[in-house]
Amino acid sequence: MSAPELSRTIKARSLPADPVVIEANEGERDALARRFGLPRVDSLRAELTLEEDGKAVLATGTLEAAIQQNCAVSHEEFAVEIDEPLLLRFVEEGAIDPALSEDEEIEIELSPEDCDEIEYSGDTFDLGEAVAQSLGLAIDPYAIGPEADTARKEVGIVQEGQQEGPLAAALAALKKD
């Protein structure tokens, strides 16, 4: 396994009192762009407060990023701003209950705290990699850019529910009134 593109290790037993700010440098942003198949990551910043939560470490804060993404329809590049709240729980390896056998079907109800539990081993965890993974989850793989409708029309694709022609224009005008 290769080294994480955005590694920031934190000692689990001596948490910083002040919020931790993670800002990706140019090399890290380039590596993250390659990892997530993006033309560019222009900026990436996360600010997280860390606190003990029983045997776990709770990280709360925000992720802000400016990326260039390819439109799912026209393949053009367009700018996307990401502003996401983060809630991560770092737990020691083995602390997460093992799942039942793969053959058994179970229904599990998750609370918001359960959704982003990250196991770590030793006395440190990688907050930077968790931020990088959060960025990956925040990227819309089917994002549509501003020229998508033009590209659709050029190849003769009409969106579902959309009509073209004089009758469609007359009906649209009646709906506005």
From TrEMBL:
InterPro entries: YceD. This is Uncharacterized ACR, COG1399. The lineage of its organism: Bacteria, Pseudomonadati, Pseudomonadota, Alphaproteobacteria, Sphingomonadales.
